[in-house]
Write a structure and sequence with these properties.
The protein is of the alpha+beta class. It has helices at about 5-10, 15-30, 105-120, and strands at about 35-40, 45-50, 60-65, 70-75, 95-100. The chain has one domain: Aspartate Aminotransferase, domain 1, CATH 3.90.1150. It is built from 3 helices and 5 strands. Helix 2 packs across helix 3 (about 105-120). The longest helix has 17 residues, at about 15-30.
Length: about 120
């Protein structure tokens, strides 16, 4: 199965707003870190971006939910977040919840992705 078929399979159960938001977020992450490896993780229900295609090199993951999409950062507590986008209470992980393309703050989110990219080994 190729990446397009896997992405279609990942997005199949979701409504049009979530699908549209996932595509916009993938485009944003690709632009912010164009040299990253992109992998559809059906088991984790996400599209992950990393260095070297491994968890240790994780930049972020785009994770569709029923009514929103999370952009997950494994090293979220290490990111500067002047836009106040990051949510979560885990030891290191944080996420940004995006309910629609119109709600998205592309500049602040791109900055978080660039920072996460710089932290990836």
């Amino acid at each position: 199965m190729d990446g397009i078929e896997e992405l279609d399979q990942l997005l199949e159960p979701h409504g049009s707003e979530v699908v549209k938001t996932v595509h916009a977020l993938i485009k944003l992450v690709r632009a912010a870190c164009p040299d990253s490896d992109e992998t559809v993780q059906l088991g984790w229900r996400s599209v992950s971006f990393s260095r070297g295609g491994v968890m240790k090199g994780s930049i972020c993951a785009v994770m569709p939910h029923e009514d929103w999409v999370n952009v997950q950062f494994l090293q979220g507590t290490s990111l500067e977040d002047p836009g106040g986008l990051l949510e979560g209470t885990g030891k290191t992980m944080r996420h940004v919840k995006v309910r629609s393309v119109e709600e998205m703050d592309p500049e602040a989110l791109s900055e978080l992705v660039r920072q996460a990219d710089e932290l990836a080994p």
